[in-house]
Description:
mainly alpha
Amino acid sequence: MKKHDDAVTAAASMVLTSGALAHPAAIAAVPEGFKLMAGTAKNTLLKVASAQRAEVDQAMEQLWDKREPIAVDLGTLAPDAEKGKALHDRMLAARESNRKAQALAAYSEEQEALANHAVMAYLNSAAGDFEHMLERIPQIAERYPKVLAVSTQRGEAIANGIARAKANKAETKKA
């Protein structure tokens, strides 16, 4: 068991040193006061299908590039070219921001899972050592209750999971 614990601890150290993390203070926060749109309001928004993005971008670029002939051809009906350019630039920036944020979220989630694994392996190893020493020095339990509580909680969760699996298996056989 000790050999396994050492391997887990070594793997945990590697996990902690791999993969650069963005410092939380360096990650942009949602603007203060921002509130998500209600689902019904969001559902009424016009959408750009992902399969149509290139065509929308090309059409917006054409409106900008040909703004002078368009003004001649359409006269007072010509769309405001500056407004169109600003809207397109904002859409492109929002798209790129969303792409980067989604990638960062996926990366951060994986890094958190790896870090959680490393911490739990470390705690399990430490708790195992404490539990081993409890036989010789029972007072340890009073000095490190939080470390031992994690081990106890994990053991209970595992036991509950096994019990649920057995109950589900028994229910499946009955049906």
